[in-house]
């Protein structure tokens, strides 16, 4: 059966008619010359929403994090990040390969945070044996979890006290904001720089925006060009981002509600160890053979999920309705009734 419901990621959404119309009508210019009004509007909008001076439109979140790391850190510097951080684990080692920047990963605590004592212990002394520790990079949400804001304040204060800059991978910062009933700028205020994804739950086809101070973004602009991220009439893409920010932020609450319904329904099956979600991502564990059988069973029912080795990830997004959750739970009932 062709798949009807795709829970693998919130990146699988397709632009809807309203978004496509906005893209088609977008005023454009050559953005490498700084002449695309739609890109400028998007950059200003994200800077405003996150409380920073300037924004920079970048093709992907991976490139946005890379540009941020390369702007903060020089060759031979290091950044502290979580073992689970996207910027450490899921970006093909780009900081090391392209930036000659050494990652210093730290085990994430169960809530996604990096324990303060471990951060403190990882910050190197000024000594010729060591790389220069320059940056603390956090992520919010991380694995669908919202970082406690009191923790964020403490971690950033610790970084500052040690002369480190701070970057937030806020790919899903609007999920964190909606889930915690706070404005995005409250969550991003402590950080020097933030990267925001438009192509996750917000539903745009392409793009991230890196925000920071005027001086930082001027340097980041050069590095974006260096890594091939300078785009020309990118306003058609920026228009999708602007549309997403206008129409698709508040509705993230629906995704969170569906994730919770899904988790509660799946948790009725004792073989599935389901983590209750804070936002739009449900993780579960099961005996690997059961997980594999279950994934195959739901796939036959037209439902796609991601995961391996007894782990599964179910992600809700704007192209999944209540019917998708109902279908998933019905497939689970069916599978475990037979098992
Ligand atoms: C998806 C994601 C990125 C990277 O975004 P791409 O556009 O896929 O390169 C970065 N950080 C986090 C936390 C993400 O989830």
Please, could you describe this protein's structure?
- 43% of the residues lie in helices and 17% in strands.
- The protein is an alpha/beta fold and 339 residues long.
- The chain folds into two domains: 17-248, Aspartate Aminotransferase, domain 2 (3-Layer(aba) Sandwich), CATH 3.40.640.10; 251-338, Aspartate Aminotransferase, domain 1, CATH 3.90.1150.10.
- The strands form three sheets. Strands 2-8-7-6-5-3-4 form a seven-stranded mixed β-sheet, sandwiched between helices. A three-stranded antiparallel β-sheet has the order 9-10-12, covered by helices on one side.
- Helix 3 packs across helix 10 (214-226).
- The longest helix is centred in the last third of the chain and has 17 residues, at 322-338.
- The mean pLDDT is 97.
- Bound molecules: pyridoxal-5'-phosphate.
- Pyridoxal-5'-phosphate binds next to helix 3.
What topology does this entry show?
Layout: E1 5-6, H1 17-24, H2 37-50, E2 54-58, H3 61-72, E3 77-82, H4 86-89, H5 94-99, E4 102-106, H6 116-122, E5 132-139, H7 149-161, E6 165-170, H8 173-179, H9 184-188, E7 193-197, E8 208-212, H10 214-226, H11 235-247, H12 252-266, E9 273-274, E10 281-285, H13 288-300, E11 303-304, E12 311-315, H14 322-338
Parallel strand pairs: 1-11, 3-4, 3-5, 5-6, 6-7
Antiparallel strand pairs: 2-8, 7-8, 9-10, 10-12
Bound molecules: pyridoxal-5'-phosphate.
